[in-house]
Predict the 3D structure of the following.
Amino acid sequence: MIDMESMFVSRSYNDVLYYYMKSEKADLKGFEKNPYRSRDGVLPVEFVPKKTKLIGAFLEAGKTLGHPTVDYNAPNGFGFGKVQVTMSKGHRQSAAKVFLHSHKKRKNLHILPEASATKILIDQQTNAAYGVEYVRNRVKYTARARKEVILSAGPIASPQLLMLSGIGPKAHLYSLGIPVLKDLPVGRTLYDHICFPGLIFKVNQTGISFTEERAVTLTTIADWLRDGDSLVSSPGGVEGIGYIKTPVSDDPELVPDIELISIGGSIVSDGGPKGSKAVRKGMRISETVFNEAYGDIDNTDTWSAFPMLLHPKSVGYLELKDNNPFSYPRMYGNYLTDPRDMATFIAAIRHIQALAATAPFQKYGLQVHPARFPSCRGVVFDSDEYWECAVRTLTATLHHQIATCRMGPVGDPLAVVDPELRVHGVYRLRVVDSSVIPRTVSAHTNAPAIMIGEKAADMIKYAWGLQ
C-alpha cells in the first residue's frame, strides 16, 4: 500500500522512481527485467532498430577508457550505453500520441486545436484562479474551472502566461503596464542544456555512417512505414549516450558533468545536393560559417559526439517582450558566462579526442577535422584557445529549459510553486511541466516532464478526494 500523502511531500529518488516506472513500457533486451524498470506502463522505451558500426566502436572505446557499458537510466548507471528512445518498432512515440490520443473521445476531455491561452483569470479579492481566457479563430473565449486551473504550457509559455496574468516580478510587470497580483520570481531562473556539435572526425570507410542521402529514399521510407526497420527510424543519427565526470568537476559527489551524445554521423550528414540541411538550420548555424568550417567534408562519412553540459553554472532568465500575449518572450540564456562551463567543455572535448584515438575507433581511421571558423582565424588549431573560440561560435541548445517556474518551499526567494506545484500565494492554480524543476538534472527533460505529469495527477486527485 502506497502512502500517497507522505509521497507527495517527499522528493526522494524512490518516490519519483515510482512515477517513472508507472508510465514506462520498456523493451530493452533484458534491462527491462531490472527492478527499476517497468514493462507495465503505456510509454514504449526501446533501443533504435538501425545502427551503424560506429556505436560498437563508441562502446568499446568507452570500455578502453574505463567506462562500462550500462543501462544509463539505472540508479548506478555511470557509463556508456546504446540510446534509449520513446519508440515502438521504429516509430517515435510522443507524450500526446501515448497519453492523449487514445482518450480523445472521453466526455470530460475537450481539445481545442489552434487555440491560444492569453490569460489566467484570478479573483483579485480572493487571489483564487477561476478560469482561463483564450483566443480561437480570432475570437476571445473564457473557460471556467470548478476546482482549479492547471497550467502546463512548458518552460517558456508557462512563465509567459503567469506574467501576462499579473504573477511575476513586480518591477518587470509594472514596466509593461501589467497590474501585479502576486510578486513572484517567475522567469528569473533559467537553466538549459547546451552542446557543442562541431567536433567532427573523418572516417576512412565509405558507407559506414548515416547520411541523409542514403537514409531517406523511397525504399527506406517504405520499409519504415511497413515495419519500422530502416535508417529513417534513427532519432537524428543519435546512437549512444555516455556519462562522464571531467577532471575539472568540483562536485564532491559521483555525479557526471558531461553527457556525450554519440552520432552515427555528424552535422554534415544532412548535406549534399539533395540534402535538407535540417540539422544545421535547426541549430541556426549560418551558411557562411558552416561552409567555411565544414564545406570540404559536407555529406561525407563522419563520426561525432556532442558534449552536453549537464550542470551549467551560468544562469539565465526569461521576461516578457511586452504585454501582448502573441509576442514571443525574451530569453537570456547567459550561456558560458561562468568560466567553469567553458573549462568543462574543453575537458569534454579532450576526452572525446581520447576516445577517437583508441583502437576501436582507429580501426576506421578517425581523424579530427580542422574546422576553419571565420571568428577563430589566427588561433592555433587544437589549442585550448581554439576550442573555446569554436564552442562560443557553435553553441547549440538542446531545448531542455527548466526552472522558470521553480519549485521550492515557502520562504524560498527563488520559488514560484510549492512542492505540490501550487503557485505560492495564489489559490487553485498549479503549474505542471518541466518549468518547475528547480535545478539541473543529469538527463534530458522529456522523461522528467512525464514523471511530473504522472505525480501531479495523483496529487490533484488526492487533493480533491478523487483517489
The chain is about 30% helix and 20% strand. Residues 339-356 form the longest helix (18 residues). The chain has a mean pLDDT of 93.
